[in-house]
Structure formats: structure tokens, C-alpha cells
Amino acid sequence: MKKREKPLSERQVSILRYIWSYLQENTRPPTIREIGSATDISSTSVVNYNLTKLTERGLLEREAEVSRGLRLTEKAMHEIGQVTEAVAAVVENVMETAVRMVRVPLLGNIVAGEPIEVGNNDFSTYDEDDALELSATMLPMGKADELFALRVSGESMIDAMVNDGDIVVMKQQQMAKNGDMVAVWLNSSDTTTLKYFFHEGNRVRLQPANPTMDPIFVDPNDVRVQGKVMMVLRNTA
Amino acid sequence: MKKREKPLSERQVSILRYIWSYLQENTRPPTIREIGSATDISSTSVVNYNLTKLTERGLLEREAEVSRGLRLTEKAMHEIGQVTEAVAAVVENVMETAVRMVRVPLLGNIVAGEPIEVGNNDFSTYDEDDALELSATMLPMGKADELFALRVSGESMIDAMVNDGDIVVMKQQQMAKNGDMVAVWLNSSDTTTLKYFFHEGNRVRLQPANPTMDPIFVDPNDVRVQGKVMMVLRNTA
DNA sequence: AGTATACAAGAACAAGTGTTCGGTGTCAAG
DNA sequence: CTTGACACCGAACACTTGTTCTTGTATACT
Predict the structure, then answer these.
(1) pLDDT (tens digit, 9 = 90+) per residue, A82-101?
(2) B50: Cβ under 7 Å from strand C?
């Protein structure tokens, strides 16, 4: 069993914290001199000495003779995690970055019971603050930018276990197979509704999953499929 | 309306792609010379000239006389996105990074109908590949490391709209109020089950949400609450 | 033909950045 | 008291990295 390591010196903890916080705000690691300035170490050789010690402890990786050739290891993340502020701040920071990489627009509520207006510009207008972001393991193969989310209002899909207030993540597509749960746009009333979709020759049947509600029948030319439900999210807290 | 911009030159596109791909594998941007080597530009002044042009187009931000003082802008991400490989690879990369920052352990299946063994070491053993990660906006206030996820097996909670195969995200807590949907550990059988929780004086009632199933009654000393359901995720694809 | 612009290139230079050298001080062990 | 390890420090140096200078070619426009 490995001998217990001596605790990091105060300077070493300070250096790790600084590197970490620098990385939150910059797309590159700090220089030796930047580290020195931030940690009140006036000599580049003392910074270098401590970086060497941190490297020996497995908390840093360095590349020789490369500018900004520093990398915090995962062990260092955990080490810092024990002493820095709430993990939630870190989470939020990472999420914000991730959201900017790929985002699922969260549009207004979609009334499962009755169609509501979503606006003529389909899925393009959204508030950046409302974006949510999903694990790749949850996303099916395909382009993330084909996805969008809607919050459900109403209980017309309750037998499909989609409840009022749930968020449905949808894949943008214009074709629907019978039985797909889809969001459809009704041209005549300028609204969107969430239903099971069935072609019935000269008409389309939009079927609720609620025994107390009747299906809606519309002309195929009046309807445009906007997306298919891929995922349901519910906050029970 | 803004005049349509001239397309980027082949070299400029190549430079942007290289910077982007370099950033996927390094925690710092490339140098002028690294860019030159990768794009067959033998002169640092030509690289510099093109970087200046990209900066003028709003695709790059530079800091003068700072090593690796480059940053791709969001506009550049979109520009590249039109020509690079599947966005899914990008998503996966970002998510992998995020997962390493904060992770919700995805334990084995929890049988909603019958208790199953989850192991004596509560919630600490998990496969890193199974981690999923959630938007900060979906997480309630509190430490992310109090959360874990379980995949449901069985249909005992179907009237609570929790279906076989769903993922439930739980907050670690040891007290439960009547009516909370919780995972409880049964000492006598070394198993965990998902149920509504009710104190009934000298016993605890674990109530399924399925009219075809009977509640389970257990001694309060035999049961330990592990977590409360905060969120339900369902993949419908 | 002349001018302006875009793009290119090698070389030199300026500034940034990492590494090494020689030294000092503290502390624990012998 | 001496020695060795550790930590620290200023200065100098070596190398990396960004910027500028000068020159050249091609194209478009007047």
C-alpha cells in the first residue's frame, strides 16, 4: 500500500487553484510568469520548481520547451475539488461552455390538448438562456442541431406518459410514420400541437393519448410535421 | 443589409479547421509556426496575414504579443460546422469533457417491481462509461455529487408515469416524507426497490403505482432510504 | 501604362516564455 | 556542529513565438 503523501504546500495548492481558475476564463494555460504574478512568487525558477513538484505528484503534465505547455490532470481536478467552492459553480461553467457548443432550443409551451401559436419562424427563435443540453449517450445518432425541445401544456398525451409540464426533446423531420408522436404545424390556424400521427388517405388523424379526448382530423395539405419526439424529461422535485 | 462576403480562401478554411482540430486534442491553441506546418505555409508572415484576415471577418480573436493568443469565435464554430464532419463527434467530445467534470453515476437497473441487489457499497461503484450528465438548469440547487441515476426495470410505478427502461435521477437523502418516490435499501434482503414511501407507525409501506400490484410492508429498522426521485428521463427513439 | 489590392514569401527582429546557474536560508538527522 | 534535503530567489541565458520589413507576382480597374 502506497505510503501516505505529504500534503501539498500552500504555494502548490495556490498554484493549482490559479491554473484552474485561469483555464475557466482563458482558452490556454497560464505562463510561468503569470503564475508567479498571481501567487506572489517573484522568481520564475521557484514557480518552475513547484511545477516540477506538482508534476512528480501526478497533478500536472508538462511539455518541455513549449510555451504554455501545462495541463492539469484529472487527479488535480479532484484535488482542487476538495478545497474549492461549490461544485455547482464548476458545473454551471462547464455547462455554459457546452451549451454554446451545441444547444437544444427550448421553445414556448406546446399545448398537448389544443394547438397554440409558436410563430411563423419555425424553431429558429429562442432565448439562449433557455437552452438545455443533453448527454451524447441520450442522443440518437444524427446532428445535434436537428434537435429542439418543447415544454408540454395539457394532458392530451397522458396515456403515453407525457404529462403537463414535461419537456419533450424532438428531432426535426418532415415525414411521419403512423404511430409516431410528433409536433405538427397547422397552417390554417398557425399553431402547433403534439399528437400521435396517422395518415388516413385523404386526411390526417391527430390522435391524443387520453381517453377523454377526441382525435383531430385535418387536411394533409394543412398540416406540416415539425418533429418527432425522441425523449421525455420530467422534473419531479 | 450587409453585403455578402467573399468566400474564405482555401488556405483560410484550412487554417480554421486546423485550429479547431488542434483544440480538440490540446488544452491550448496552436502557434503561428504550428499552423504553418500543418497547412503547408512556409512563412510565418503568410500565416499572420491570413490570421489577420480571419480576425477582420470576425472568425478569430487575437491578443497581441501573447503566445498562443488565438481564440476561435462562435461564428467560426458555425462556419466550420458547415464543412466539418458530423456534429455528433463534436458533441461527444464536449460531453466527454463535461462528464469528466461532473458525473451522475448510472447504476444497474432498479427493479420497480421486485427488489434487486445493488451491492453493499451504496452508489459508489459505477462504470464511467455509463455516466450521463445533465444541464444545470435541470438540476435543482444543491451539490451535483449528491445525484445518481438508476435505470428502472419493471412497471410497478407506471401510474406515476415511470416506465420500464426509464432513467430516474435521484438526490441522495436519508429521510423521506409520505408520498415521496424513493429508492430504498432493504437490509434483510440486500436489495433496492423504487416505490412511494409511507411511514405507518410501526411499519413502512412501500407503495407501487400500479393497481395490479400490492404494497410491501417492512420494519422501519430494516429499511434505509437512499434517494428521492428528482427527474425522469425517457428515450422514445 | 499606371495604380491599387490581394496574396505570397524569406529574413530579420522584437517580445514572450521556459530553463539553468549560483546562491541563501531553514530544518531535521547524525 | 556538520551535513543533506528542501524551498526559495535573482539573474542570465536559451529557445519559442509573434511581428515587421522588403520584395515579388497576379489581377482588376482607370
Answers:
(1) 433 333 333 333 333 333 33
(2) yes
